[in-house]
Each structure stands twice: as structure tokens, then as C-alpha cells.
Amino acid sequence: MYVWMRLLRVAATRGRRGPYRLGEESRLTFRCLPTDVDMNIHLNNARYMMLADMGRIDIFLRSGLVTAARKRGWAPMLGGLQTVYVREVRLWQRFDVVSTIETWDETQIIGRHRFLLDDGRVAAIILTTGGIYDFRGKRFVQVDEVMGALGHQAAPRPLDAEERAFITSHQGLRARAKLLS
Asked: Which phi and psi angles does 111 have, rounded to 5°?
């Protein structure tokens, strides 16, 4: 139930944060609740993923993607992620999830979620890849087409070394998963 309450809060307060524009960030503040902790009494690994979802959903809502996607039969889909944990988030501790769209390449969008403690230190970083799936056309949409639908004309910046390594690793693991299927 708490997941749905957090989602409702993100949706209900999106107007306060204003429209999302490329190059900006989504910043959401949370508190580590008893339902979020593991046996070490800190934020468990699954909650990091769920809270990163909240950051992506905030971007989807505020950018107009949800509205544009519904009209066209599209849906955002997460393709994969890589997570690094640096510091723990303890029970009752407040923290921010700062989410950004970093860049894109053809049909893949690279996102980043930083979990920041009150003192500004990084607790974790999640790097994601995803895309926009066209259910009618049974294909992933070129990101340039998505950006056009949102009224953005920005060009993506080149992938940096970290993002290129992430994409390469992701593609290799994805290929292995398909072979094992």
C-alpha cells in the first residue's frame, strides 16, 4: 500500500515542481520507513529500484510523456539497470532521489538516479536504460520521434565512457538471456 501512496503523492504534487525540461532534474524527498528496511535496518535493495521508478514516473508525468504515449499507444519500458551502493540509508532517515535523462541513442534512453543524504553525500547511484514501446507498431520508437512528440528539438550528447560500458554490458547480458530462453 505504501508504494501506491508514494505514487499518488508524486502524481498529486507534480504541478508544484513544474514542467520537466530536458537537462533538468527531478528531485523527490522520501523518508526510509519501517516497510523499506531489511535485516540491517537500512533501505533494502528492492526499495532503491522502486524509488527510482518514482523519479522516472515524475519525469514521465511532468514532461508530458504520459499524455503523448496514451494518444499514440506507446508505453515507457525499463530495459535494465546497474546499481552501486556507497552509503546506507538508515530507518527514518530523509533522503532525495534525483533523477535525470542523461542522453539517448536510437531507441535507448539513458537515465540516472542519485540517492542523496541530507548532507549531500551520495548513498547510491542507479544507471538505467529504457525505451518507448509502440504497441500498435510492435517496435521501440526512435527517441528523436519521442522528443518531437514532446516538442523538444534537442540533440543527444555522445555517450560517455561509463554509459558506453553500461550499454555494452547490458547488450551482452541481454543476448545471453535470449540464448538461455
From this structure: -120, 160
